[in-house]
Amino acid sequence: MQTETMTPQHSAANQRRGKFTLRDLGWALFVIIGSLLAWNEYGANMDVYEDAILAGSAIGLIWLGRFWPSFQPATVVVTLLSVLAIYTYASHGNAFSANEQAFFLKYLISSQSAIMWMNALFILAMITYFLALYQKSEFTGKVATAMVWSAAVFGLVGMMVRWRESYLINVDYGHIPVSSLYEVFILFVVLTALIYLYYEQKYKTKTLGGFVMLVISAAVGFILWYTFDREAHVIQPLVPALKSWWMKIHVPANFIGYGTFSIAAMVGLAYLITAKVAEKNPDSGFVKRMPSLELMDDLMYKNIALGFAFFTIATVLGAMWAAEAWGGYWSWDPKETWALIVWLNYAAWLHIRMSKGWRGKPMAWWALIGLLVTTFAFLGVNMFLSGLHSYGEL
Q1: Contacts of 314 (CB under 8 A, 6+ apart)
Q2: What pLDDT does residue 185 have?
Q3: Nearest in space to 177 (alpha carbons), one of 198, 157, 160
Q4: pLDDT for position 386
Q5: How far apart are CA 276 and CA 360, in angstroms?
């Protein structure tokens, strides 16, 4: 396995993480004040569990912003745009119809406008990343990265504003936007993009961006089809089983797992292509531009390990939610069964790697096949099977 050398930048980053800087203090105050304002505004409608989730989210944001400073300005922009949208709705009497009257809502920051901007930017980013790889252009790569950041910001703004819009349509409709298949696809592309951006920054390479954007763009294609063919963007009331605070923690944990598994698969695809080209022409310009095979192998492992941890947490949380909603921790429902298959698949991947030392092509192929298994558990079950989770079907 390739080990990272300690560059001056790495050393400075490690030293910074050991100290609490003025910027860290400002970030912590920003998150705490924002959380208190949110609680003051909406706390009357929150129960003790939701209070705990808000407090835990604030602590998590403070830690994440300190661990990954690039996340801080993106969060500030998301906050400002979301507040602007909420204020605009309020200035129009909290009427949902304001999204057709106010210019910025209609064309930029209503939930549907923001999500459409997200979709367009992700597809453009994929094209731009591959163009940067082909042209060997550092500037084009930076443009692609900026597009991904912008797409993630628009996606988060769309989700935050959609949350508010659900209450404006009907108080009984109000819910966090991670309940329908349409909403979780948005969550998936945003989380996958943010996780990718972290690794892009950590490993200082943009050549994997186009490959990761392939799976994100496929999800965007589904979102667009689901929007225009099924009108899935229309906000609907929650089914009774989803009216639970468990949803606020189970679903995000699940989709961190799905996102990292997807990144691992796309890195595996890049690994297999690079290895194939290297066998025929070790001096190929493509091979020289791509990260080393050792680095890609390591990146696959880190993503699957992270995803496995979060998927395990999500599965446990899901069992606890099932016990509350349906009276039992496990019902062998198709969704539960396929979640177990996904868990066993990646548990085996990690076990074989750590106990047998498997590396390279077999693990890359396994990561790709694992994505097919995960996709069926995520989407195929909703399409072809029924059960207690039938509210998520197409």
Answers
A1: 250, 251, 253, 254, 256, 257
A2: 96
A3: 160
A4: 60
A5: 12
pLDDT at 333: 84
Report H helices in the chain: 8-18, 22-42, 48-67, 71-91, 103-104, 111-135, 138-169, 181-203, 209-230, 247-280, 285-289, 293-326, 334-351, 361-375, 381-384
Interior/surface letters 83-102, b for 16+ CB within 10 angstroms, e for the rest: ebbbebbeebeeebebbeeb
Lookup: tokens for 19: 């100290």
Rounded-to-integer distance, Cα 336 and Cα 320, Å? 12
User: Using CA atoms, how far apart are residues 104 and 210, in angstroms rounded to an integer?
Assistant: 31
Alpha-carbon distance 209 to 191, whole Å?
Answer: 15
Q: Answer positive or negative: Cα dihedral of 330, 336, 338, 344.
A: negative
CA distance 81 to 160: 10
Contact between residue 122 and residue 220 where contact means Cβ atoms under 8 Å apart:
yes
Q: Enumerate the H helices of 43-110 as residue ranges.
A: 48-67, 71-91, 103-104
Which candidate, 285, 287, 271, places its Cα nearest to that of 135? 285
CA distances from residue 392 to 179, 216, 241, 313, 373 in whole angstroms, order as listed: 8, 20, 11, 21, 18
Residue carrying the six token digits 């077999």: 362
In the chain, how many H helices and how many E strands? 15, 0
pLDDT under 50: residue ranges of the chain = 1-15
Which pLDDT belongs to residue 200?
97
pLDDT, tens digit (0-9, with 9 covering 90-100), for 201-233: 999 999 999 999 999 999 999 999 999 998 999
